[in-house]
Specification:
The radius of gyration is 16 Å and the shape is globular. The strands form 4 sheets. A 6-stranded mixed beta sheet has the order 3-6-8-9-10-11, sandwiched between helices. The chain has a 3-stranded mixed beta sheet with strand order 5-4-7, with helices on one face. 26% of the residues lie in helices and 28% in strands. It is α+β, with helices and mostly antiparallel strands. The protein starts with 6 loop residues before the first helix and ends in an 8-residue tail after the last helix.
Length: 188
């Protein structure tokens, strides 16, 4: 694959890639294969997903998408697949059945679970902010911390005993950071 791919070409041929393209992104028109996420990655997303669902039901709005491809650049195309996107605008569940979208969510959540995911995080966060995102959370299962980034503000690093608040992005949302990394009782 020496020629640059568009987002649409990438999605059309994604099944031909290793693991069906599940851990592959498109960066400047070229496929980039990431390591599969860790168990701790999955645990943190499971716990966050449950908390976001409870929040959405209580607040009667918003929904999460998992592994939705966000087209953040064209010519050449870049498509990133963050662990979670949370939408609070538009018709409810509009983006859930899509593989890729150009719609901007209210919140993006990344997980620093493997070495390659950790290495590229600063660049990814910068690309999210340049794309117009105002809120990015980075879950770090190794350190049991959450890094919050809000455009135009200094980022925060929260330890496991601290509370993650939704702030302007998800008013009323809160969860203790340690709860994000707790192994579910049924998994023991």
């Amino acid at each position: 694959m020496s020629e640059l791919l568009t987002a649409e070409q990438f999605v059309a041929g994604r099944d031909e890639l290793p693991d069906g393209g599940r851990w592959t992104e498109l960066v400047a028109g070229k496929p980039v294969i990431l390591s599969p996420p860790t168990i701790e990655h999955g645990t943190s997303i499971l716990n966050l997903g449950k908390a976001l669902a409870e929040y959405a039901q209580k607040e009667q709005g918003g929904y999460a998408c998992f592994e939705l491809g966000l087209v953040i650049a064209r010519n050449p195309d870049t498509v990133h697949f963050p662990a979670v996107c949370f939408f609070t605008t538009g018709a409810l569940f509009t983006e859930t059945e899509k593989v890729i979208t150009e719609a901007r969510p209210t919140l993006i959540v990344e997980v620093a679970s493997t070495n390659d995911r950790r290495r590229g995080l600063e660049q990814r966060v910068t690309s999210w902010l340049n794309w117009g995102m105002n809120h990015v959370w980075i879950l770090d299962p190794q350190e049991k911390q959450v890094h919050t980034v809000e455009k135009g503000r200094t980022g925060q690093r929260l330890a496991d005993h601290q509370t993650l608040f939704g702030g302007p992005a998800l008013s009323g949302f809160k969860i203790t950071v340690g709860e994000l990394f707790k192994e579910p009782g049924w998994a023991k």
